[in-house]
Amino acid sequence: MSLQTILLVEDEEVDQYICKYVINKFNSSITTLIANNGQEALEILQHDKPDAIILDINMPIMNGFEFLDHYASEFDNHVPVVAMLTSSIDDNDKKKASQYSFVRVCFQKPLTNAHLQQLKDTWNQLT
Length: 127
Description:
There is one protein chain. The protein has helices at residues 13-26, 38-45, 64-74, 91-97, 113-126, and strands at residues 5-9, 31-35, 52-55, 81-86, 103-108. The chain is of the alpha/beta class. Strands 2-1-3-4-5 form a five-stranded parallel beta sheet. Helix 4 links the parallel strand 4 (81-86) and strand 5 (103-108). The protein is globular, with a radius of gyration of 13 Å. The chain starts with a strand and ends with a helix.
């Protein structure tokens, strides 16, 4: 079984483009769903179940941590791997994210092949 669908939660169009490009270069068969904020991501998760979520922290409407709070309380069956992808270098952000059992990794922007390999390896260990 392989990683087939990733939900990318990112508000910046440039970062969305870079992430989609890197994901496609990593494995062109991976479907990338896009949400511009945490609220859109929750709506997508009502009807889609991706294999992984790549989540930005700083977004309008609903930021990454607000998303995690809602996701933890509203969904019983969590995606195996949530990866935080952020430009933040604040260790407190990493500590806060790691309080959620489904947040498995934290990456510094920009997304790279090495990040995706780590995401895939983590997903493979859990499925």
